[in-house]
UniProtKB/TrEMBL annotation:
It is found in: Cytoplasm. One of its GO terms (molecular function) is ATP binding. The keyword Metal-binding applies. This is Shikimate kinase. Pfam families: SKI. The lineage of its organism: Bacteria, Bacillati, Bacillota, Bacilli, Bacillales. It comes from Saliterribacillus persicus.
């Protein structure tokens, strides 16, 4: 089976849906953010603050390419599509799911978040960022799932039906 890549904005539910797919399919789960934190022994907020976003994007790009392209579930960071080479890579994969959450859902889910440097950055217009990334997520996806008002297990079942 080709690996299942989950893409979408911060707070769209990638991690919780990935965990449900993992449970239901009993396949290994890889989370690019988590791998980066393990590799660097730093929190993502620390990488952004100490090394800058470009270093984080380099790490993320390297991690993506290293993951198994078969028999795995891969939850990607919301900014994975910031690099064109990652867009190209994802377009070559056969199972890329875009979890499409509305701005309202995202703001509700992330209201108390302290782990996402871009979300916490007051100088960045996150709603604009969502709008600019949406067409890119769509362009790399083989399946688009609206996630508003849906539980992770329901979404996981929809993904499993698709594959
Ligand atoms: C980011 C999303 C985060 C994480 C980092 C940058 C982004 O991942 O990779 O904070 O640029 O949208 P999640 O989508 O898992 O929150």
């Amino acid at each position: 089976m080709d690996s299942i890549y989950l893409v979408g904005f911060m707070g769209s539910g990638k991690s919780s849906v990935a965990e449900e797919v993992e449970k239901q399919l009993n396949l290994p789960l890889f989370d690019t953010d988590q791998i980066i934190e393990e590799k660097t022994n730093k929190k993502i907020t620390e990488i952004f603050a100490e090394d800058g976003e470009a270093v984080f994007r380099d790490l993320e790009t390297a991690v993506l390419k290293d993951l198994p392209s078969t028999d795995a579930i891969i939850s990607t960071g919301g900014g994975i599509v910031e690099r064109q080479e990652n867009q190209k890579f994802l377009k070559e994969q056969l199972c890329v799911i875009f979890l499409d959450a509305s701005w309202e859902t995202i703001t509700k889910r992330l209201s108390n978040d302290t782990n996402r440097p871009i979300w916490l950055n007051k100088d960045r217009d996150k709603q604009k960022l969502l709008e600019s990334r949406k067409p890119i997520y769509k362009s790399v996806a083989t399946l688009i799932l609206k996630t508003d008002n849906k539980e992770p297990d329901e979404l996981a079942s929809e993904i499993i039906t698709h594959i």
